[in-house]
Amino acid sequence: MHSVLMDVDTGIDDALALVYLLSRPEVRIEAITCTAGNVGARQVALNNLALLQLCGRSGVEVAIGAEVPLEIPLVTTEETHGPQGIGYAELPFPAQQISPRHAVDVWVDTVRANPGEITGLITGPLTNFALALRREPALPKLLKGLVIMGGCFNYQGNTTPTAEWNVSVDPHAAQEVFAAYSGLPADSLPVVCALETTERIELRPEHLQRLGEASGAQEPELVLPEQPEGQRSASDNPLVACISDAVRFYLEFHRLYGQGYVAHMHDAFAAAAAIGRTPIQTRPATVHVETGSPRLIGTTVADFRGIWNEPPNARIVTTNDPPQCFDELISSVAALARTLRP
């Protein structure tokens, strides 16, 4: 059994990551903590609750944490993920309430109560975890492991020429998190899924068609570049329709910015890596996050060769297997979707 504590800014690819983990019978989601990023923190929480409800899951605590970064103004990205963060998908207002607890309390209390058992998965800005570290500096030693989607190393950024989105939203938090892991044993260091590997996870129309077929949907799930923007899914499967409507927005966004009719599923890859369901290789490095330079703020720099004479504080994913990852995501999510047919 994998016990996972998710910290997210849901987000289309965060949504697929959550649905994927819900589809895995060996995964227990201990809680979901929400930070502002793709959209505001309250909307993130509502998205997570609605997705839990869609997937027939109750009793998973969803808590709001930081609503602004540590030191800089909040920037959200509705143009990338849609006004509610889940593209064209529209979900009913959830019946379950947002937890009264703060995300920091959830992190600290959950990990203290289950030392060595919880894997943290952070697919948004690192604000909540940085604040939790201030409260409990021993978290890196108490966690079973930590997987972070963020950063880019010797690779073009997706927010500035040198910065990745999650880190750029709150670079000060990211720097605090990496600093907290300095000097720990190699197998305790966070696994970092950065853009150079996550942008290889290119979801294409044929993946959505495969998902519809594997889910037993009656009609082919065709999300095609020649169709009108915003066309809604007619699938009789509610989960397939939700994913399709969300991803269509993401496909259109990537096309608008010259990347083709594809959608990078950064967070879904990180989720599969966190539970060992997709093969990866990592390389230890000392990561620095730039916080001072106006043009370079949010830039992540990795010293792989020990030039700084500082101990490693991260394990950066260097290789992955996109076809296998999509096989895993599609088969697993489809199995869940088959249980949700109306």
Structure at a glance:
The protein has about 350 residues and is an alpha/beta fold. The strands form two sheets. A nine-stranded mixed beta sheet has the order 3-2-1-4-5-6-11-9-10, with helices on both faces. The chain contains 13 helices and eleven strands.
What features would you highlight for this structure?
about 350 residues; 9-stranded mixed sheet; 11 strands; two-stranded antiparallel sheet; alpha/beta; single chain
Task: Write up what this structure looks like.
The chain is α/β, with parallel strands linked by helices. The protein has helices spanning 12-23, 41-54, 78-81, 103-113, 127-135, 139-142, 165-169, 171-180, 195-198, 205-214, 238-256, 266-274, 322-338; strands spanning 2-8, 27-34, 61-64, 118-122, 145-149, 191-193, 202-203, 263-264, 281-289, 300-303, 314-319. The protein has a nine-stranded mixed beta sheet, with helices on both faces. Strand 2 (27-34), helix 2 (41-54) and strand 3 (61-64) form a beta-alpha-beta unit. Helix 10 packs parallel to helix 13. It starts with a strand and ends with a helix. The mean pLDDT is 96.
Helical fraction: 25-40%
Major sheet attributes: 9 strands, mixed
Major beta sheet, strand line-up? 3-2-1-4-5-6-11-9-10
In total, how many beta strands?
11
What does the secondary structure layout of this molecule look like, with pairings?
Blueprint (H helix, E strand, L loop, with lengths): L1 E7 L3 H12 L3 E8 L6 H14 L6 E4 L13 H4 L21 H11 L4 E5 L4 H9 L3 H4 L2 E5 L15 H5 L1 H10 L10 E3 L1 H4 L3 E2 L1 H10 L23 H19 L6 E2 L1 H9 L6 E9 L10 E4 L10 E6 L2 H17 L4
Parallel strand pairs: 1-2, 1-4, 2-3, 4-5, 5-6, 6-11
Antiparallel strand pairs: 7-8, 9-10, 9-11
Helix pairs in contact: 1-2, 1-11, 1-12, 1-13, 4-5, 5-8, 10-13
